[in-house]
Amino acid sequence: MSESPQKTGTILVGSDGSAGARRALHWAMTEADLRRAAVRVVVTVDPERSSVTSVAEGERIAAETTEAATLHGGDTEVTVGVHEGLPVDVLLSEAAGAQMLVIGSHGTSSIRHNALGSVSDVLARTAPCPVVILPMGAA
Questions:
Q1: Short-list 10, 105, 89, CA closest to 45
Q2: If phi over 0 gives left and psi between -120 and 50 gives alpha, with beta otherwise, what is residue 137?
Q3: 3-state DSSP assignment of residue 108
Q4: Which residues are CB-contacts of 84 (< 8 A; sequence separation ≥ 6)?
Q5: Per-residue pLDDT of the chain (139 residues; tens, 9 = 90+)
Q6: Whole-angstrom distance, CA of residue 69 vs CA of residue 131
Q7: Cα→Cα distances 57→16, 24, 35, Å
Q8: What is the pLDDT of residue 6?
């Protein structure tokens, strides 16, 4: 009887249920298959500074993400959690010990980017692990 290969680490994915987040999940799961890593998806709820404004909405996105992960196939173990707090802070905290953090770019306008800052920009500069930012249209 052969044992299944041991997981070698975790790839963290930030999700808000957007098309970019779905691209990030797909990319992370493909990468996790290659690395024999697990995938942990974090949905962050913040009524004032996130596109996910309620726990109920976060739980809906988590359920949709779990369903999408089962359609991927492969042997990748995927867990999904809903966390309350500022998205950057939650993702930075959750990224401790991860092999990498994967997020999708939203392609926000330069006006919004300059006024509010970009989650992906902050994460790329300050995360404790490598960050993969999938641009719009990436597979």
A1: 89
A2: left
A3: coil
A4: 44, 45, 46, 55, 90
A5: 445 555 679 999 999 999 999 999 999 999 999 999 999 999 999 988 888 999 999 999 999 999 999 888 778 899 999 999 999 999 999 999 999 999 998 655 444 444 334 888 899 999 999 999 988 765 5
A6: 21
A7: 9, 19, 31
A8: 58
Q: Which amino acid is at 78?
A: V
Domain range annotation of the chain: 10-134
Residue 52 token pair: 């996910």
Neighbours of 72 (CB within 10 A): 16
DSSP state of 104: E
Q: Which architecture characterizes domain 10-134 according to CATH?
A: 3-Layer(aba) Sandwich (3.40)
pTM listed for this prediction? 0.85
**N residues, the chain:** 139
Nearest-CA neighbor of 92 among 38, 65, 129?
129
What the block records as the tokens of 68 is: 């999408």
